[in-house]
Amino acid sequence: xxxxxxxxxxxxxxxxxxxxxxxxxxxxxxxxxxxxxxxxxxxxxxxxxxxxxxxxxxxxxxxxxxxxxxxxxxxxxxxxxxxxxxxxxxxxxxxxxxxxxxxxxxxxxxxxxxxxxxxxxxxxxxxxxx
Length: 130
Prior knowledge:
Elements: H1 2-6, H2 18-25, H3 29-35, H4 37-49, H5 60-116
Protein backbone atom coordinates (compact mmCIF):
# COMPACT_ATOMS: atom_id res chain seq x y z
CA UNK A 1 0.00 0.00 0.00
CA UNK A 2 2.75 2.39 0.93
CA UNK A 3 4.45 1.99 -2.43
CA UNK A 4 1.23 2.95 -4.24
CA UNK A 5 0.56 5.85 -1.88
CA UNK A 6 4.02 7.34 -2.35
CA UNK A 7 3.87 6.83 -6.11
CA UNK A 8 6.47 4.07 -6.48
CA UNK A 9 4.59 0.96 -7.68
CA UNK A 10 6.54 -2.09 -8.74
CA UNK A 11 4.09 -4.06 -10.85
CA UNK A 12 1.02 -1.88 -11.44
CA UNK A 13 0.13 1.33 -13.26
CA UNK A 14 0.27 3.37 -10.04
CA UNK A 15 -3.41 4.32 -9.87
CA UNK A 16 -4.92 4.35 -6.41
CA UNK A 17 -7.41 1.54 -6.96
CA UNK A 18 -7.94 -1.95 -5.57
CA UNK A 19 -6.97 -3.40 -8.94
CA UNK A 20 -3.61 -1.61 -8.84
CA UNK A 21 -3.13 -2.61 -5.22
CA UNK A 22 -3.85 -6.24 -6.04
CA UNK A 23 -1.53 -6.16 -9.05
CA UNK A 24 1.28 -4.59 -7.05
CA UNK A 25 0.69 -6.60 -3.86
CA UNK A 26 0.04 -10.02 -5.34
CA UNK A 27 -3.35 -11.45 -4.32
CA UNK A 28 -6.31 -11.42 -6.63
CA UNK A 29 -8.63 -8.47 -6.55
CA UNK A 30 -11.58 -10.48 -5.28
CA UNK A 31 -9.53 -11.57 -2.23
CA UNK A 32 -9.00 -7.92 -1.29
CA UNK A 33 -12.59 -7.03 -2.05
CA UNK A 34 -14.35 -9.88 -0.22
CA UNK A 35 -11.99 -11.72 2.14
CA UNK A 36 -9.62 -8.99 3.37
CA UNK A 37 -12.12 -6.16 3.57
CA UNK A 38 -10.15 -4.57 6.39
CA UNK A 39 -7.19 -4.06 4.05
CA UNK A 40 -9.50 -2.68 1.39
CA UNK A 41 -11.10 -0.25 3.85
CA UNK A 42 -7.70 0.79 5.20
CA UNK A 43 -6.41 1.42 1.68
CA UNK A 44 -9.42 3.52 0.68
CA UNK A 45 -9.22 5.39 4.00
CA UNK A 46 -5.57 6.22 3.40
CA UNK A 47 -6.32 7.29 -0.16
CA UNK A 48 -9.15 9.54 1.03
CA UNK A 49 -7.09 11.01 3.90
CA UNK A 50 -4.18 11.82 1.65
CA UNK A 51 -3.47 15.47 1.22
CA UNK A 52 -4.07 16.44 -2.38
CA UNK A 53 -0.81 16.18 -4.25
CA UNK A 54 -0.42 18.30 -7.37
CA UNK A 55 -0.58 16.30 -10.56
CA UNK A 56 2.78 14.88 -11.43
CA UNK A 57 4.25 15.49 -14.80
CA UNK A 58 2.86 13.11 -17.37
CA UNK A 59 4.83 9.93 -17.66
CA UNK A 60 7.10 9.51 -20.63
CA UNK A 61 4.63 7.32 -22.53
CA UNK A 62 1.87 9.94 -22.28
CA UNK A 63 4.25 12.74 -23.19
CA UNK A 64 5.51 10.72 -26.13
CA UNK A 65 1.95 9.98 -27.25
CA UNK A 66 1.01 13.66 -27.01
CA UNK A 67 4.09 14.64 -29.03
CA UNK A 68 3.24 11.99 -31.63
CA UNK A 69 -0.31 13.36 -31.88
CA UNK A 70 1.08 16.87 -32.43
CA UNK A 71 3.50 15.55 -35.04
CA UNK A 72 0.71 13.65 -36.75
CA UNK A 73 -1.47 16.76 -36.86
CA UNK A 74 1.42 18.79 -38.28
CA UNK A 75 2.21 16.15 -40.92
CA UNK A 76 -1.46 15.88 -41.92
CA UNK A 77 -1.71 19.66 -42.30
CA UNK A 78 1.47 19.67 -44.38
CA UNK A 79 0.12 16.82 -46.52
CA UNK A 80 -3.13 18.69 -47.13
CA UNK A 81 -1.20 21.83 -48.07
CA UNK A 82 0.99 19.87 -50.49
CA UNK A 83 -2.07 18.25 -52.06
CA UNK A 84 -3.51 21.71 -52.68
CA UNK A 85 -0.24 22.84 -54.22
CA UNK A 86 -0.14 19.78 -56.49
CA UNK A 87 -3.67 20.47 -57.69
CA UNK A 88 -2.75 24.10 -58.38
CA UNK A 89 0.35 23.05 -60.30
CA UNK A 90 -1.68 20.57 -62.36
CA UNK A 91 -4.12 23.33 -63.29
CA UNK A 92 -1.24 25.64 -64.24
CA UNK A 93 0.35 22.97 -66.43
CA UNK A 94 -2.99 22.39 -68.15
CA UNK A 95 -3.45 26.12 -68.85
CA UNK A 96 0.10 26.38 -70.17
CA UNK A 97 -0.44 23.39 -72.46
CA UNK A 98 -3.57 25.02 -73.90
CA UNK A 99 -1.75 28.33 -74.42
CA UNK A 100 1.18 26.51 -76.06
CA UNK A 101 -1.11 24.67 -78.48
CA UNK A 102 -2.84 27.96 -79.39
CA UNK A 103 0.52 29.60 -80.02
CA UNK A 104 1.56 26.69 -82.24
CA UNK A 105 -1.67 27.03 -84.21
CA UNK A 106 -1.11 30.78 -84.59
CA UNK A 107 2.49 30.24 -85.67
CA UNK A 108 1.42 27.63 -88.25
CA UNK A 109 -1.25 30.00 -89.59
CA UNK A 110 1.29 32.82 -89.89
CA UNK A 111 3.77 30.57 -91.69
CA UNK A 112 1.03 29.53 -94.11
CA UNK A 113 0.15 33.19 -94.79
CA UNK A 114 3.80 33.99 -95.45
CA UNK A 115 4.07 31.03 -97.86
CA UNK A 116 0.97 32.14 -99.79
CA UNK A 117 2.35 35.63 -100.28
CA UNK A 118 5.13 34.58 -102.65
CA UNK A 119 5.09 37.98 -104.30
CA UNK A 120 6.91 39.46 -101.35
CA UNK A 121 10.57 39.48 -102.22
CA UNK A 122 12.92 37.70 -99.91
CA UNK A 123 15.29 40.43 -98.83
CA UNK A 124 17.51 38.17 -96.87
CA UNK A 125 18.76 36.32 -99.94
CA UNK A 126 19.67 39.47 -101.89
CA UNK A 127 22.87 41.18 -101.10
CA UNK A 128 22.95 44.88 -100.86
CA UNK A 129 25.44 46.38 -103.27
CA UNK A 130 26.87 49.79 -102.42
